[in-house]
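Input (structure):
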């Protein structure tokens, strides 16, 4: 089995993690498919720890890295506190590039409110572009922690903002000439790039709203592999099934236009910036209304069902099918085929 760029297939990762052993009883949650953070028992609170690299883009890679790591903590209800960064630099990297990258990193830490407490830097022949990877640590009260495995049968599935904020912005930056050549106007590309700023890729605000008086059972941010992979990861973690309606999944206009131009499926495109929440139907209805009153688009896209139902999607033409499990993120597929 020759793997391509992107996340490990869910089943391969699941099988690989089966040999992992936890030797410290303070580890309440170790490695598990669908859970993006570990939990450590520290008395009156939990330490929450997550790691993520940024490999799709070199532009603003340090800023991306800090924010995608913070998102992994936000969805557990935790507050990010400390960040460690690993920076791998290709031979020939300039002093100005390094200084610029660290300015981005410090700016992101300031935005999030985390302290950079260490890490590792290295110039290596093993990479062809700057790679930033981070480990972020935060805290949450024990009774307030939220896990993907908390998704429960009967929950409504709420999606905020729409797809695919991050993937669309990266494509607008990295594939601009091809997008223009395929008939997309410059104004659309500029708007797509600006998605990084508004609405942005942080889910902090959406999480805080969801945690402000609603019976949230699980949260998950759709990153690499898009909304399709995120739903499958959540279902795997909770041992449940689901059914979603493709017509209800909001695709941003810029995403739709650029995806069509590049023959990309938005369902499998990296989607940091939106948030999946599962919670009881009445709470979901109230939460969607709250988001809308605050000017944030959100909607119910489906329902959590017994695992025996499987992971289904009603397509835009009305057929009920197994949701597509993307072999790799559509961004990775596009770049590997066009570079």
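Output (sequence):
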């Amino acid at each position: 089995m020759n793997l391509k760029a992107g996340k490990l297939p869910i089943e391969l990762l699941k099988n690989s993690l089966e040999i992992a052993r936890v030797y410290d009883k303070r580890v309440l949650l170790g490695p598990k498919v669908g859970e993006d953070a570990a939990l450590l028992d520290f008395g009156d609170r939990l330490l929450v720890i997550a790691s993520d690299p940024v490999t799709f883009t070199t532009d603003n890679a340090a800023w991306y890295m800090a924010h995608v790591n913070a998102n992994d903590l936000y969805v557990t209800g935790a507050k990010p506190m400390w960040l460690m960064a690993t920076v791998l630099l290709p031979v020939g990297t300039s002093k100005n590039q390094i200084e610029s990258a660290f300015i981005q990193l410090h700016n992101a830490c300031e935005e999030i409110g985390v302290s950079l407490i260490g890490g590792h830097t290295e110039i290596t022949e093993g990479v062809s572009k700057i790679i930033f990877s981070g480990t972020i640590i935060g805290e949450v009260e024990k009774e307030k922690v939220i896990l993907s495995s908390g998704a429960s049968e009967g929950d409504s599935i709420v999606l905020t903002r729409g797809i695919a904020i991050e993937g669309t912005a990266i494509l607008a930056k990295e594939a601009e000439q091809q997008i223009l050549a395929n008939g997309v106007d410059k104004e659309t590309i500029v708007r797509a790039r600006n998605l990084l700023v508004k609405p942005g890729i942080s889910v902090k605000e959406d999480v805080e709203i969801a945690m402000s008086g609603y019976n949230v059972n699980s949260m998950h941010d759709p990153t690499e592999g898009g909304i399709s992979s995120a739903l499958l990861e959540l279902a795997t973690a909770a041992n449940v099934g689901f059914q979603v309606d493709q017509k209800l999944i909001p695709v941003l206009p810029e995403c739709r236009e650029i995806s069509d131009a590049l023959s990309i499926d938005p369902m499998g495109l990296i989607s940091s910036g939106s948030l999946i929440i599962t919670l009881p139907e009445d709470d979901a209805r109230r939460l969607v209304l709250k988001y809308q009153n605050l000017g944030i688009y959100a909607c119910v896209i489906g329902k959590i069902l017994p695992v025996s139902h499987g992971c289904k999607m009603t397509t835009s033409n009305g057929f009920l099918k197994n949701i597509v499990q993307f072999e790799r993120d559509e961004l990775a597929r596009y770049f590997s085929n066009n570079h």
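Notes: The radius of gyration is 19 Å. The mean pLDDT is 93.
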